[in-house]
């Protein structure tokens, strides 16, 4: 696991912590290191994401288990690996941005986004109808992974976990960051205008 990768994970965590999206020790990030066999670098469990360092990452396998290390990966490491495998993502970002949790509460069957310019930043055209899938929360990563895979759409690089947070992925951490920041804006708009455009946003 290269120091450039772990330093990048730490830098991105600090960024999200400063934005209030990784409060306390919540949230986790990962980067794919190799495909066959699948290996990811993922942030470890129980570390304040605003103070995380390049030492606070661990290599995991396709099942989310640490590889040749006593470090404890995030409890959600297995879901990161599942997303990386199914979506062929190069990086996965999981944060607890409030807009994503509130949106999932209002639209538990999926959040519909349409006719918003910021969709371009999410990798879609503004006139397209994009549905962000929502799955029920679970402490069982196999159950969450199955729910993710069942509703997976290759054109939608995001997953909302009800009363928990959001997962967004991309080819690398930078693309995942851009998609996440744009999606958070889109979800915040959706939530804050739901009473104004009840017919269009139901």
UniProtKB/TrEMBL annotation:
MF-aspect GO terms = methylthioribulose 1-phosphate dehydratase activity
Q: Do you know which InterPro entries this protein is assigned to? A: Aldolase_II/adducin_N, Aldolase_II/adducin_N_sf, MethylthioRu-1-P_deHdtase_MtnB
What EC numbers are recorded for this enzyme? 4.2.1.109
- Kindly list the positions annotated as binding Zn(2+): 94, 96
Report the pathway entry: Amino-acid biosynthesis; L-methionine biosynthesis via salvage pathway; L-methionine from S-methyl-5-thio-alpha-D-ribose 1-phosphate: step 2/6
Which reactions fall under this protein's catalytic activity? 5-(methylsulfanyl)-D-ribulose 1-phosphate = 5-methylsulfanyl-2,3-dioxopentyl phosphate + H2O
Instruction: Tell me the leader sequence span.
Output: none
The coiled-coil segments of this chain are none
Q: Class II aldolase/adducin N-terminal domain location, by residue?
A: 7-191
Cofactor binding note from Swiss-Prot or TrEMBL: Binds 1 zinc ion per subunit.
User: Cofactors per UniProt?
Assistant: Zn(2+)
Q: Name one Pfam family in it.
A: Aldolase_II
The record's family statement is: Belongs to the aldolase class II family. MtnB subfamily.
What's the stated role of this polypeptide? Catalyzes the dehydration of methylthioribulose-1-phosphate (MTRu-1-P) into 2,3-diketo-5-methylthiopentyl-1-phosphate (DK-MTP-1-P).
> What is the protein's given name?
Methylthioribulose-1-phosphate dehydratase
Q: Which organism is it from?
A: Lentzea indica
The opening ranks of the lineage are: Bacteria, Bacillati, Actinomycetota, Actinomycetes, Pseudonocardiales
